[in-house]
Specification:
It contains six helices and four strands, in the order H-H-H-H-E-H-E-H-E-E. The chain is mainly alpha-helical and 331 residues long. Among the domains are: 43 residues, no CATH class; 90 residues, OmpA-like domain (60s Ribosomal Protein L30, Chain: A, 2-Layer Sandwich). Strands 1-4-2-3 form a four-stranded mixed β-sheet.
């Protein structure tokens, strides 16, 4: 009956595969990897360790805070932001006017070269050679024929009484004593031969005057920092387009901001202010910063033109001190 056997075989194969898959981790029916681990034995054949913390309770969600923390008011936060912005602008201006000079480090002093002591063995050989030359010269002088004399009969035969030259005994010299360390003389100052007591400088300024009902801060007597009157310390208005330092190529992922500005124009004039990251007030540095600010403004203007902003509606300006490019339409 082929019409019965064919579905029966299909269902039996399907149930067999399902049983094998479901019992893969069973201790009775194992996969080939399980059989292999069982043959290896040891720690490999043991079941896996449970996950750490499986026996602990789930974290109690009710302990999490349900209310947001108390934050300062929006007005106070804006005031703090403006104060920090002014401090940053003032610091940039001070660094530009009086930049820090890089100290010139002098080269390292040259160490004195130690004088090489003469080799004692070489000195000994030189002295021996000199003594041998002197002795040979004396023997040669003695071996010469004597000059003829008038009274040859009265002359007695001369005996060879030349004694061998003795080598001078080497005297052992004591090593030189080590040099004494250089010590600076003791400093003794005399002020009119009178004992003058210098008052100690206090660490903190004197405490301010106190009034009943008023809390005066500890830094009330400190002078306020110098702030030039003509320097605007507030952050420039407008949308900021960031640039890397000393570069006229804007940072990526800012095309959406340019597109939104182009859509919000509504026929108004767009002012593009470019800043050149000036770090000095020298004429050369100021000129380079203005050129960089102008290049940045031109780059942003081309991006606006690419978003269907007419060229006649764009005004570009360059500034030496500042960062990036500001786009605004409120002028």
């Amino acid at each position: 009956m082929p019409f019965i056997r064919q579905p029966f075989l299909r269902y039996s194969l399907l149930m067999g595969f399902l049983c094998l898959e479901g019992c893969a981790n069973s201790p009775v029916i194992k996969t080939p990897v399980g059989w292999y681990h069982n043959l290896e034995g040891g720690i490999v054949s043991q079941p896996r360790l449970p996950v750490p913390g499986h026996d602990q309770t789930y974290p109690y969600v009710g302990l999490t805070p349900t209310q947001p923390p108390a934050l300062p008011s929006p007005a106070l936060r804006n005031e703090i932001t403006d104060s920090l912005t002014k401090d940053r602008t003032l610091s940039d201006w001070q660094n530009t006017v009086a930049p820090l000079d890089i100290p010139k480090i002098p080269p390292a002093p040259q160490q004195p070269v130690a004088e090489s002591k003469p080799n004692t063995e070489q000195a000994k050989t030189a002295a021996n050679n000199q003594n041998s030359e002197e002795s040979s010269a004396s023997f040669d002088a003695v071996g010469q024929d004597p000059a003829p004399e008038a009274n040859a009969a009265d002359k007695q035969p001369v005996q060879n009484t030349v004694k061998p030259v003795e080598k001078p005994k080497e005297s052992k010299k004591a090593p030189p004593p080590p040099p004494e360390p250089v010590v600076l003389p003791e400093l003794r100052a005399k002020i009119d031969e009178q004992a003058v007591v210098i008052p100690a400088i206090p660490v903190n300024p004197p405490p301010p005057s106190k009034f009943p009902g008023f809390n005066i801060p500890s830094d009330a007597n400190l002078p306020s920092p110098f702030k030039p009157a003509a320097l605007p310390l507030e952050a420039p208005k407008g949308e900021l387009i960031t640039f890397p330092i000393d570069s006229d190529t804007p940072n990526p992922k800012q095309d959406g901001l340019i597109n939104s500005i182009a859509w919000q124009r509504h026929g108004r004039t767009i002012f593009v202010h470019g800043y050149g990251d000036a770090y000095s007030i020298e004429p050369k540095d100021q000129s380079q910063a203005l050129s960089l600010g102008l290049l940045r403004a031109k780059t942003v203007a081309k991006m606006l033109i690419a978003h269907n902003v007419p060229e006649s509606s764009i005004v570009i300006r360059a500034h030496a001190i500042g960062h990036g490019v500001r786009i605004r339409m409120d002028e």
